[in-house]
C-alpha cells in the first residue's frame, strides 16, 4: 500500500523573530529600532502575515495527508521523501534554498508579502493552498521543470543549485585553478581570479545578470526552463603564469566546465548557502553542467 502524500511546509525565521532573538523582548527590540529612527510596527506586521499564511496553509492540508514543517536553517538535516509535496511559504529565495535538497518533488511557492517579493518563484497566495495541493498530486500536474546546475567533485561530493553555483576562495584572497571544458585533451587554462559563477535561467535576474551586463555579453540569457547555463570568471588576473582567454561561455545539456584547484582551498556553494558548501583542496577537480534533476514548480 502506497503512503499518503506528505505536505512539507518550508519557512524561515522572520525579521521580527531575529530581532527578538537578538534583543530578548518586543520592548527592547522596539527601543533599539526607535533610537535609530525606525519603527518595529512594519516588521511586526510582516511577521504576523507570515504566521497567518503558515496557519492557512497548514489548515488546507487534506485530513488524509501527513504533514511536517522545516525551518530554512534545518534544511540540510531534513530528509525529504518521494511522496512529499513541498510548500515554500516565504520569499523567492527560500524556494532556491530548498531546491538543492529535492529530487523531483513538486513545489508550491506561497508569497507571504505580495508586492514586496518579486513573486518569480512564490507565485501564489495562501488562500489558494488547498487547490494547489490537489493540483500537485493530480495526474498530469501543472508544473514547470526549472533547470538546475550541478557540481560534482572528484571525490563524489555533489551540489545542486537553482540560481547559480559559485566557486572561489573562502575569503578575499585570490583563487588559483585550471579551467577547461569537457574535451578529453583540453588541459585548460591556468587562472587567478576572485571566482567562477555558473548560473541558470532562473538565476538570470540576479547575480548572473549583473555579470552578463557588465561584460556586454552577446549570448542571450537562458529562460528558466532552458537546458542551458552561462558561466563567467570574476576579475581574472593576467600574469606570466595565468591567462584570461576563457572568462565566459555557455553550457548545453551534456556539456561540462572543468575546474582543477591549484591553491590551498576553494569553496563551492549554491544560491548563497555558504554554510552548506563543498570544500576542495589543491589538486582536486570539479565538473559543472546542467543537472539531471529539475525543480518541479507548480504553476
List the helices and strands and how they pair.
Layout: E1 6-11, H1 15-23, H2 26-34, H3 41-60, E2 66-71, E3 84-90, H4 92-99, E4 106-111, H5 129-137, E5 143-146, E6 149-153, E7 158-161, E8 164-168, E9 175-181, E10 189-193, E11 196-199, H6 207-215, E12 228-233, E13 248-252, E14 256-261, E15 265-270, E16 278-281, E17 285-290, E18 295-298
Parallel strand pairs: 1-2, 1-3, 3-4, 4-18
Antiparallel strand pairs: 5-18, 6-7, 6-17, 8-11, 8-15, 9-10, 9-14, 11-12, 12-13, 14-17, 15-16
Helix pairs in contact: 1-2
Explain this structure.
By secondary structure, the protein is an alpha+beta fold. It has helices at residues 15-23, 26-34, 41-60, 92-99, 129-137, 207-215, and strands at 6-11, 66-71, 84-90, 106-111, 143-146, 149-153, 158-161, 164-168, 175-181, 189-193, 196-199, 228-233, 248-252, 256-261, 265-270, 278-281, 285-290, 295-298. A six-stranded mixed β-sheet has the order 2-1-3-4-18-5, sandwiched between helices. Helix 4 links the parallel strand 3 (84-90) and strand 4. The protein is globular, with a radius of gyration of 21 Å. The two termini are 29 Å apart. The model has no long low-confidence stretch (mean pLDDT 93).
Any idea what the radius of gyration is?
21 Å
Task: Give the % helix.
Answer: 10-25%
Strand order of the largest sheet: 2-1-3-4-18-5
Terminal Cα separation, in Å?
29 Å
Our estimate of the beta-strand percent is 25-35%
Figure out the total of helices.
6
Overall 3D shape: globular
Could you say which structural class the secondary elements and strand pairing correspond to? alpha+beta
Low-confidence stretches: none
Average pLDDT level: 93
The largest sheet, given as strand count, sense and whether it forms a barrel, is:
6 strands, mixed
Count of DSSP strands: 18
Secondary-structure element string: EHHHEEHEHEEEEEEEHEEEEEEE
